[in-house]
Amino acid sequence: MQYHEDSIDIRQTYMNILNLHGFASAGNNGAAEVLRQTFPEAVIESPDLPVSPREALRVAGSALNSMLNTHGTCIVGSSFGGLYAAILGAFHPVKTVLINPSFWPHETLADRVGTVENLRTGEAFEWTREHVAQAMLVAGLPRPLAANRALVFLGGQDDVIRLPETRSELRHCRVIEDETQGHRFDLSPHADTLREFLLN
Question: Using CA of residue 75, residue 118, residue 131, residue 56, what is the dihedral sign?
Fold first, then answer.
């Protein structure tokens, strides 16, 4: 899609983006950087989510609700943030982009209980058994994504999420599997695909 920055109104495009980061990450994650480069005309919200899964989903939902009053909103979620994005995207008329979504975090993060270092900030935080229990409850929430409003990126070498089960759950959606990438997925090689999906 061709556009001209001097004639575009960002409030009249599908360009209000909520970016949700994953476990032990922050709002300035890699996806946020690529989104800002790919969509310089966009209004991008990328909050630092609380450690508590219950609180993180509440914060993400509140951020989304505040953006729904504007024209055109979409959600991008990575890893644990992909789970939040799938839940919210299933019940709102928004386009949803999932990047290596972690749909079973209570299993994949069960052995991380204790002190964890945030990979973006370097700060330490506590991941507790209560957080694991909350993750299980959040993972059990329905997430019936509409196929025409979802785009999924999977790293073929991802050894963190349950890749076969994730493929199966999202088989009705458009899935792009990049065999060269692992869990820390670099969106930049797929920027054109991302832009085409969100603008059309």
Answer: negative
Please state whether beta strands 114-117 and 73-78 pair in parallel, antiparallel, or not at all (unpaired).
unpaired
pLDDT digit string (tens) for 27-85?
999 999 999 999 998 999 999 999 999 999 999 999 999 998 766 899 999 999 999 99
Phi, psi of 189 (to 5 degrees): -65, -15
136, two tokens? 């299980």
Buried b (16+ CB within 10 A) or exposed e, 61-90: bebbeebeeeebbbbbbbbbbbbbbbbbbb
- Strand intervals (E) in 52-147: 73-78, 95-99, 114-117, 124-127
With a CB cutoff of 8 Å and minimum separation 6, the contacts of 2 are: none
Classify residue 72 as left (phi > 0), alpha (psi -120 to 50) or beta: left
* Phi, psi (rounded to 5 degrees) for 145: -65, 140
pTM of the model: 0.91
The span from the CA of 50 to the CA of 195, in Å, is: 29
Q: Helices 80-90 and 53-67: crossing angle, nearest 10°?
A: 50
